[in-house]
Amino acid sequence: MSFALVDGNNFYVSCERVFNPRLDGRPVVVLSNNDGCVVARSAEVRALGVKMADPWFKLKDLARKHGILALSSNYTLYADMSNRMMRVLSTYSPEQEVYSIDECFLGFDGFPAAALPVIGERIRQQVRRWVGIPVCVGIGATKTLAKLANHCAKKDLAGSDGVCDFGQLSESELDALFGRIEVGEVWGVGRRLSERLASLGIITVRDLRNADASMIRDAFSVVLERTVMELRGVSCLALEEVAPAKKQIMSSRTFGAYVHSLPELEEAVSTYLARAAEKLRRQRSVAGAVQVYIRTNPFNETHPQYQQGLTVPLTQVTSDTVRLTRAALWGLKRIYRPGYAYQKAGVMLMDLYPAGQTQGVLFPTASPGRPALMEVIDRANARWGRGTLKLAAEGVIKPWQMKRERVSPAYTTRWDDLPRVS
Predict the structure, then answer these.
(1) Which CATH code for domain 8-137?
(2) Is the model's pLDDT at 245 over the cut of 90?
(3) Which residues lie below 8 Å from residue 223, measured CB to CB, with a gap of 6+?
(4) CATH dotted code for 249-394
């Protein structure tokens, strides 16, 4: 069995460059919600020493000096470009696991080993030509090795030029390569775990691969033991072709401006609940409880501080936005306190069960919902854009919405934003 990991390079920045070629070759960053921190960097920005999660306000001088362009996150555009990329990749294998918005695993069971580098290069060329996104391809006998091979492809550590297939390297070449890569580059090994491994003399990927697996299990976990076996070419992680249903669904945002009144908080909570309920129905689940929370800005010492949350159990499980919103607003009214400048609110749907597989109620006190109405709402919003149909509780003007002062057009999902050629 062989696996490939295909990963979009600087994905958010690359999406922006597809429709704005003037950004090519220029230092570009994409910012988080409310234009706060760096969440994506072009290679030019990375070369300037800018790190992920660096606050934008601290980079203003560097931006002026080097001409760094900052853009607000355009998640609508990125999600659509991701779907296009994944559709192209799905044609290369009957087995595909979409791992994140810009990454997916492909299973190459039964494919000739000698053909895999050629397939990898074909993938790069077709995704770039059809979607416009540059990608790197890592190929290995396990998912962990494929992930590591992708890292090597990005860093050109094996002379791969965008495609790295560990199957084409000899044992001595692999041993030398793994001896040059820090253990923190292994999938699932973070900074803290790297420090603990370093105390045992495990510094490189080669050190971890050659470590005693039973010792690793006793000192750390079964998960890390599986990682050791995967580095040795023993596949322990299968492809998840169907993403498992989430056990909790959360929706929250930091406000673009402080919120003081209950009606504005109700609008925000209703909006976040509608998004969460849509995700709930998409995975064909129902919820048994709703949690709502609000908080002030903990870093603003000039304002009085307050944060509170409340979980509201439901008498009957449901995926109906109206019922869920009613429960969330009931909880919000009980935790709201006047006189505070609220910075953030959020909701969480809990006690999730597959729809149609829940225990019935002998004496129901409320209708289970309006499935036909919810289906109409979801279809309309999917076709004409989020918010086309919504509850009146979500409001219209929404002055609390997050800041997106540098957002690019929705080039692929809104008629008015279609690129024009003159």
Answers:
(1) 3.40.1170.60
(2) no
(3) 188
(4) 3.30.1490.100
